[in-house]
TrEMBL record:
Organism: Rhizobium mesosinicum
CDD domains reported in the protein's UniProt record: TdsD-like
Keyword Chloroplast: no
The name this protein goes by in its record: Nitroreductase family protein
Lineage: Bacteria, Pseudomonadati, Pseudomonadota, Alphaproteobacteria, Hyphomicrobiales
Pfam families assigned to the protein according to its UniProt record, in alphabetical order: Nitroreductase
Origin: domain of life: Bacteria
Annotated family: Belongs to the nitroreductase family.
Amino acid sequence: MTKANSRESEYPIDPMFLERWSPRAFTGETIEETQLLTLLDAAHWAPSSSNMQPWRFLYALKGSEHWEEFVSLLVESNQEWAKNASALIFVVSRSFNGPRSEGRSSYTHSFDAGTAWGHLAMQACISGFYAHGMGGIKHEEIKEKLGVPEGYRVEAGIAVGRIADKSILSERYREREFPSQRKPLSEVVFNGHFIGND
């Protein structure tokens, strides 16, 4: 067992997996573009089906010409806290293999993009930043306003920044600002056949 960050694993994993979590309280300080690109570089080394690398990342740095537009593409409840991040990223995945004209769909594009996001989140933690993934984004508006072509799926948003004291958050978020626990491993891992039904 490993203990870190008020969490405890059932098996001896590296503590960095327990240290990583998704805060909402960010300092709002700027991040150098090279620092953000370091996180994105880690993401792009993720494994992918046949090395297709279907992930694409669109980003805006706080204070840049694109910042307000990126904030506006989050749902309002996420805008409330994510406006204090240092960078916002939208993850997009390519839903086809090879040239689009061949019409071959990729079954694992979302799976692969999720793996890349996981690499980004871990590199952020290693680098002294935190990354908070968000499903609460305006998917169709992102496609339209940011020029995402047909055949690509807008997957999620990510807020990146340095952690701040939770007192800067509204009360509803302050109460939830802590590293969440996980279900017991036995509820999500099965030897042989699927067991249980949520």
